[in-house]
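User: Here's a chain of 166 residues. Predict its fold as tokens.
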Amino acid sequence: MFCGRSCARIFREKNSVSSRPSEDESMNEMRRLSHKVTMNFWHFEWCTKYRYRMMQRLEIKNLVQAAIRKAASEHGIVFRILSVLPEHVHVLATLPQGMTDSRALGLLKGRSSFLIFRNREHVRLRYPKGHFWAPSSYSATVGVNDLETCEAYIKNQEAHHNVVFS
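Assistant: Prediction complete.
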């Protein structure tokens, strides 16, 4: 498409509306690495152990959301969408170079579980062995053409499951 970095830069400058991209635009931009240009999106889904509805209360939902976001920021994972439901979580994310989906899920689930138990000790009464998340999960890559469909799917989950947080 472009013959090199200079042509891509000129094309970007000619077609840019503002000098500073919005958060949504920066998520859609290609990342330039030393030998390639890339854009990757992953759809992750995982649930609580035994599918207990632990995030039914808004207080716990916000805690879980903050713990997952903190775990992601510590490891360079960028979220496009994060949706926390009473018994499971949906995420649309971009992973850093070299990180596999299984590694990302392990880091997100492990660190967020640690932070949840540290901040709310009464949650450990339900999970005495310290395993907040189930060992299983779902992950799939999302292409640029399917990105809007996946976003709509994740945003529509609360209505789909008829969720009301208390």
